[in-house]
């Protein structure tokens, strides 16, 4: 599942990755679902190139999210924090220095 959000002139792309654990002890592959990770990328609203490498997120305990909606919500929130703290503040500080 992938979602894109526009926030303060940037696009936040959040992709959910389903995690499975493969049993290596037997010759038959047994997959047990573990949950979902959120993969977050941020780019300027009208471009295709990304500012940062993809960021993979799990929950507060470092475990995968139980469902994909929780992963999407956390990814969107993380993307907004990245925009607020790293991109918008940095751009406004550069403009102040140029004045």
How is this structure best described in words?
The chain is an alpha+beta fold and 99 residues long. The protein has one domain (2-98). The chain contains one helix and four strands. The chain has a four-stranded antiparallel β-sheet, with helices on one face. Strand 2 (10-22) and strand 3 form a beta hairpin. The chain is elongated and about 35 Å long. The protein starts with a strand and ends with a helix. The model has no long low-confidence stretch (mean pLDDT 82). It comes from Burkholderia lata (strain ATCC 17760 / DSM 23089 / LMG 22485 / NCIMB 9086 / R18194 / 383).
Average pLDDT figure: 82
Q: How much helical structure, as a percent, in the residues?
A: 25-40%
- Counted up, domains total 1
User: What is the string of helix and strand elements?
Assistant: EEEEH
Q: Strand order, biggest sheet?
A: 1-2-3-4
Radius of gyration: 17 Å
- Unreliable runs, pLDDT <50, ≥5 residues? none
Q: Report the principal-axis shape.
A: elongated
- Supply the helix-strand structural class: alpha+beta
State the helix count: 1
Number of strands: 4
Major beta sheet, specifics? 4 strands, antiparallel
Strand content: 35-45%
What is the terminal-to-terminal distance?
44 Å
Protein name: Hydrogenase maturation factor
């Amino acid at each position: 599942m992938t979602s894109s959000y526009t926030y303060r002139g940037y696009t936040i792309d959040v992709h959910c990755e389903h995690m499975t654990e493969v049993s290596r002890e037997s010759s038959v592959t047994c997959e047990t679902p573990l949950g979902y990770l959120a993969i977050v990328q941020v780019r300027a609203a009208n471009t295709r190139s990304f500012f940062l490498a993809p960021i993979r997120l799990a929950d507060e305990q470092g475990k995968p999210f139980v469902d994909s909606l929780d992963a999407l919500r956390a990814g969107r929130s993380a993307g907004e924090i990245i925009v607020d703290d790293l991109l918008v503040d940095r751009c406004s500080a550069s403009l102040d220095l140029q004045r």
